[in-house]
Amino acid sequence: MSSLTLYTPAGVLAQAQPLKRAAKRLAKLGFDVEIDESALAKHQRFGGDDATRLAALHRIAKAGPHVALASRGGYGMTRLLDQIDWKLMVKSAERGTRWVGQSDLTSLQLGLLAHAKEGHHPISWAGPLACDDFGRSEEEGGVDDITQDCFTEAMSGALEAVGFRTEAGFEELGVRGQLWGGNLCVLNSLLGTRHFPQIKGGILFLEDVNEHPYRVERSLLQLQQAGVLDAQKAIVLGDFSGWRKSPLDRGYTLKTAIERVRASTRTPILTGLPFGHVRTKVCLPVGAKAELYVQGREVLIGWAAEHHHHPHLHRH
Question: Among 160, 207, 211, 217, which one carries the catalytic annotation?
Fold first, then answer.
C-alpha cells in the first residue's frame, strides 16, 4: 500500500471538510493516508505562518511517503523558496517521494529542477490537488473519473503517456526533451531567480486561471524576450479559463493572443493539453525526459514509465 501525506504548503483551508473527504476517498483508492499535523493551521490567508509551512515541507521530505499531495494551491510557496532545504527536497524526490500538485506548487516543482546537481533530474508530478479534486462533495460533482484514474496510474508508476487533440498545422511534429512547466504566472515569478531551472531543448507546458488573454500574452512574451521560448523544442498550452471579456477587446481573444506569440518565436506552440484549473486534468512528470509526437491533430506525450509490463495511455 502506498503511503500518502496530505499537507498545506500555501493557501489556507477555509474548512476541514474537503480535506477529510479527500482523505477518505484516497484511502478507498488504496492509499495509506496521513494528514500532516499542520494541514489545518491558519495564519492570515496562509495554511499556517511561513515557519509552520516550511517545517511541514521538511518534515514530509524526511518521512519519505510515496506521495506528498498538497491540499490546495493559492499563494504562499514564494515566501518559502529562499529558506527551503533544497538538498533535502531533491533527495526526497530522488528517493521516490512524488510531490504532486499544481498552481502555486509550480515553484516547488521547478525549484527541485533548479537546485538538482547537474545531470540529476528529480521528478515531481503536475497533477491534482487534494481538496479541489478529491474533496468535492457529490452535490458539487464529486471526483472526475479521468483525473482520478490518471492520478492512481501515475502514482503506481504505470502511466507513461497522455494524449489529446490540438489544432491543425502540426502534422508529423516529433520532438524529444525534458518535460517541465506549470502555472504561467508562478513560473514567470521565478525568472531571474536562482529557483528558475535553465532548461534548453525542453517541452514546456503552461496553464493559468483568471488571467485575461492580454495578461497571458504579456507573460508569454516575457518568456520569449527572456530567451526561454526559443530555447525549447515545443510549448504546450493547457487551460486558460476564468477570465472575463472586456468591451475594449474588439475581437482580441485568447486565440489572437496565442497567434501573436507564435509569430514571435520559432518554437511550435500547441494547444489543447487537458491540464490546468479544470476538473479533468492529466498528470505530467515534471523533469522527465519525454517525447512529443503529432499525427494529424492527435498529440501524444510519452515518457519512460517505471513499470514497462503494461503501458498506459490517457487520452482526453
Answer: 207
The yes-or-no answer on residue 310 being catalytic is no
The 3-class SS string of 8-51 reads CCCECCCCCHHHHHHHHHHHHCCCEEEECCCCCCCECCECCCHH
Over residues 173-192, the mean pLDDT reads 98
Annotated catalytic residue: which of 195, 212, 277, 314? 277
Per the annotation, the verdict on 103 as an active-site residue is: yes
Domain parsing of the chain, residue ranges: 3-143, 159-315
Q: Beta strand 159-165 with 174-183: parallel, antiparallel or unpaired? A: unpaired
Q: Is the pTM of this model over 0.85?
A: yes
**Record: fold of 3-143:** Rossmann fold (3.40.50)
* 207 among known catalytic residues: yes
Which pLDDT score, from 0 to 100, does residue 313 have?
Answer: 57
The superfamily (CATH) of domain 159-315 is LD-carboxypeptidase A C-terminal domain-like (3.50.30.60)
Count of C-beta atoms within a 10 Å radius of residue 234: 25
Q: Pick the catalytic residue from 38, 71, 92, 103.
A: 103
pLDDT per position as a tens digit, 21-77: 999 999 999 999 999 999 999 999 999 999 999 999 999 999 999 999 999 999 999
* pLDDT band with cut points at 50, 70 and 90 for residue 311: very low
Residue 314's pLDDT band (boundaries 50, 70, 90)? low
